[in-house]
Design brief:
18 helices; single chain
């Protein structure tokens, strides 16, 4: 149904963009099984591992506002190129040093990749999507994330097992380089372009406090902290428990689950509303953290991965569709960028914040704390997502319309 509504040119353009996105996330994810171990082998403590991994979000946050505005004022393709270039070059730096201060700098530089690419990609997909099929197209195009998270760790873990860190890191470089070539082939359709002004630039961060963004940002903050715990501590946690489980398979299982649910929830959220699916996603994510909290063997780690992947596969694309509903095309880059600030801050703070408790409560306790944060986010989301409690409960539990939507098929 959706494909029939798109011209041949649009289909080819989306295919090029999809391929670029797949290579981008594969490049990033290929480092998940190896980079924490590489940092630890460089002499880092558990908290220092968390600090280096979390510094990814420093570059992300420092340039988030500028890159989000750049996507609106100079075009989505430009920021896609910036993001892919950072993704292709940062892993070379990791290979050249084991100095913790330099690794922090390189990790921060690597964070620019998501600040640019994820914002430009989401905004461009939303630009291309017909309003009545917005959730469906965003859901399909967001499949690059779980597919990349499935392929990247599997390939990175395999090469690490064969030849150590060097081939695993060079794989990340190669994937990013090919992705850069794919971005060059992407055509950006014409649209209304925002005009930069000093007054508008000063209002960028103030948008975080607006009714349409405040609760989604807080919810994504909780999700970001939980995801930061997974990306930083799962390899160390599995090794600490002695479970006979390949850490790469954890990320692959999560990605497969995420892929599977995205095939269904995007179109369903177009027809039945975004709120109830975000609620379901938070329930699954929280359950995943509980499972990891109690994990003692490979089966429990696998179940935690599946639940986490399912939750992420619902929350992330449905939040993207929700933000597209709540924004105009000429401000969409900034709205997407701002909404993901919560996730970015969570990712930045997860390593040092939760890592500081590791000696006292262990890796399992870290995921117990993450579970509590996810359920706190759920308790905030249900009553506060709309203009009053009654409308919010209908929106989040019963498929009620989104009162903040500007352009939505379910408004």
């Amino acid at each position: 149904m959706l494909v029939k509504n798109l011209s041949r040119k649009q289909q080819v353009n989306l295919a090029a963009l999809f391929t670029a996105g797949l290579l981008f996330w594969s490049s990033l994810a290929s480092l998940l099984p190896t980079l924490p171990l590489y940092i630890e082998d460089a002499g880092a403590t558990t908290q220092q591992v968390g600090t280096v991994m979390a510094s990814f979000a420093i570059g992300l946050l420092l340039l988030k506002a500028r890159l989000s505005k750049l996507a609106d004022w100079r075009g989505r393709k430009l920021v896609l190129l910036i993001g892919m270039l950072a993704s292709a070059t940062a892993p070379l730096g990791y290979l050249m040093t084991q100095s913790l201060p330099l690794l922090i700098v390189l990790r921060a530089f690597h964070g620019i990749s998501i600040a640019a690419f994820a914002t430009g990609y989401s905004a461009l997909v939303a630009d291309m999507a017909p309003p009545k099929n917005r959730g469906e197209l965003i859901g399909y195009m967001s499949l690059v994330n779980p597919l990349g998270l499935a392929l990247g760790p599997a390939l990175g873990g395999l090469l690490y097992g064969i030849g150590g860190y060097r081939p695993a890191f060079l794989l990340s470089v190669g994937l990013g380089t090919v992705g850069l070539l794919c971005v060059l082939r992407v055509w950006e359709p014409p649209r209304a372009t925002a005009v930069a002004s000093s007054a508008e630039a000063g209002q960028f961060w103030k948008l975080l406090g607006t009714d349409r963004l405040r609760v989604p940002v807080v919810v994504l903050l909780m999700v970001g902290i939980a995801f930061g715990a997974i990306s930083t501590f799962v390899p160390l946690y599995i090794r600490d428990t002695g479970a006979n489980f390949n850490v790469g398979l954890f990320y692959t299982a999560a990605a497969i689950a995420s892929f599977s649910v995205r095939l269904l929830t995007g179109r369903a959220s177009d027809n039945y509303g975004r709120g109830r699916f975000i609620t379901l996603g938070l329930l699954l994510y929280g359950s995943a953290m509980v499972m990891l909290w109690q994990a003692e063997n490979a089966s429990m780690f696998l179940m935690g991965a599946v639940l986490q992947g399912g939750g992420a596969g619902i929350i992330i694309p449905t939040m993207a569709a929700l933000m597209a509903d709540r924004s105009l095309p000429e401000e969409r880059g900034r709205i997407f960028g701002l909404c993901m600030v919560g996730f970015d801050v969570g990712l930045a703070t997860a390593g040092p914040l939760l890592g500081s408790f590791a000696d006292a409560i262990g890796y399992s306790g870290i995921f117990g704390l993450a579970a509590g944060l996810i359920f706190l986010g759920l308790l905030l989301f249900i009553p506060l997502s709309s203009k009053d409690v009654a409308h919010s409960i209908r929106f989040t539990l019963a498929g009620g319309r989104d009162l903040y939507a500007i352009d939505s098929p379910t408004r």
